[in-house]
Amino acid sequence: MGNFFENINSTGNLGQSKREIIFCIRQKMTKYGFAVCYACTRGQAKEAAAVLFRDKSKVVEIDLDRIRPNPSQPRRTFHEEELLGLSQSIRENGLLQPLLVRKTGDGFELIAGERRLRACRIAGLKTAACLISDCSPDQSAVMAMTENIQRSNLELFEEAEGIRRLIERWHVTQEEAASRLGKSQSAVANKLRLLRFSESERERIVSSGLSERHARALLRLEDQRLREKALSFVIEKKLNVRQTEEYVEKLLSGDKNTNQKKTPVIKDVRIFLNTISHAIATMKQSGISAQTLQSETEEYIECVVRIPKTQAYAGGSQKPA
């Protein structure tokens, strides 16, 4: 599309009439959609684009101060380096893609283009080209979500949180939400399962660059403490998805190689009493006249072992200081 932009932007210098330029733009509409309306940024091409969209009066320059963020914006993370790079591009080439907004009271609500809006402000722009939509608040929420999904640049949990908010706002089932977002019901269900991670787990998954498949494998561990240990192991060893799935499977099956040793719990005190009795019997067989005295109350069992001193330190062993 870059070459197309260059061709359109240069038409104003070729002496073409507005009619010819409009015809050129219309030929590209099927392939590029409304993108052509912001490809024409100077010369006669800019004026021609205004003529093309004059009937609907959709594309206008709007003061940035009048545009407020979309409350349904699924993106929560904006990387400073990317914004600085985008702002530099806007300074040099202008805003190639207009912001998508809708009218609200005496201002406008952003539907799509939060990164571009932030970059425009960093670049020092006062106004920006905007495409005004007549959509409802619910439609705005859907468009904000789908625009980010189609770009495939939302983080795992941003997309999951966005879907959850849409479901709560619409009061619809996962299946209905999936239909509106153009996704399968299973895909939506898998996204929502990611919200079972704690906030700290989410931060570690994102910062370490683990994929959604890594996360879904770890979710098989329902115990959070075990899951956090597994997450640390996966990050430390830099396991790929297949290795992570195998590691989780071993944890679930109690494989000895996972170092997840369980401490045996013995609740029958008779086992310990028998152990003491066995020790006394062994001492007697060795010629030591040891004895054990056992008494029992309502609260406890008392066991006393008596060994004659003359035999306790026989054989050259020393008395304790």
UniProtKB/TrEMBL annotation:
GO biological process: chromosome segregation; positive regulation of sporulation resulting in formation of a cellular spore
Origin superkingdom: Bacteria
InterPro entries named among the record's database cross-references: Chromosome_partition/occlusion, HTH_ParB/Spo0J, ParB/RepB/Spo0J, ParB/Sulfiredoxin_sf, ParB_N
Keywords in alphabetical order: DNA-binding
Record GO terms (molecular function): DNA binding
ParB-like N-terminal domain boundaries: 60-149
Cell compartments where the protein resides: Cytoplasm, Nucleoid
GO cellular component: chromosome; nucleoid
A Pfam family hit: ParB_N
Family according to the record: Belongs to the ParB family.
Name of the protein in its database record: Nucleoid occlusion protein
Lineage of origin: Bacteria, Bacillati, Bacillota, Clostridia, Eubacteriales
